[in-house]
Amino acid sequence: MTAKSKYQAVLDLGEKLNIKNGDVTEENGILKVKGTANTPYEKNLLWDKIKEIGGDKPSDIMANITVADESVYHRHTVKSGETLSKIAKQYYDNASKYQAIFSANTNILKNPDLIHPGQELVIPNI
Fold first, then answer.
1. Structurally, how many domains does the chain consist of?
2. d(CA 6, CA 59)
3. Tens of pLDDT along 23-49?
4. DSSP type of residue 123
5. Which of 23, 42, 51, 102 has its CA 20 to 30 A from that of 5?
6. Beta pairing class for 61-67 and 30-37
7. Are 7 and 58 in a shared domain?
8. Which DSSP string do the residues of 12-46 spell out, in sequence order?
């Protein structure tokens, strides 16, 4: 199995996330991947997928993933049925951090219990 085929799920995720300036080469059994993620959250998703496949310190892949916008952790478009607590759980693994999301979005939110599908929320770096 080539390194590229082993890490195909990482490459597929990169395409799904629309990673910019992507480049993939394989030399001597080592997959070299580079590109620019939109946000730190997307970069983390890629690294999580790499570790899921290759373990905590994979020796058959070298990834150089930069981030285009470090000013926010991510930008999230609200879907039907979501709450700030659910969104906080998704990004921070802690539902009680919903207040940080609310505080970062007071320009469009007046009440943390009232969010609507289609709103784009800033998920702040915390």
1. 2
2. 13
3. 999 999 999 999 999 999 999 999 999
4. E
5. 42
6. parallel
7. yes
8. HHHHHTT-EEEEEEEETTEEEEEEEESSHHHHHHH
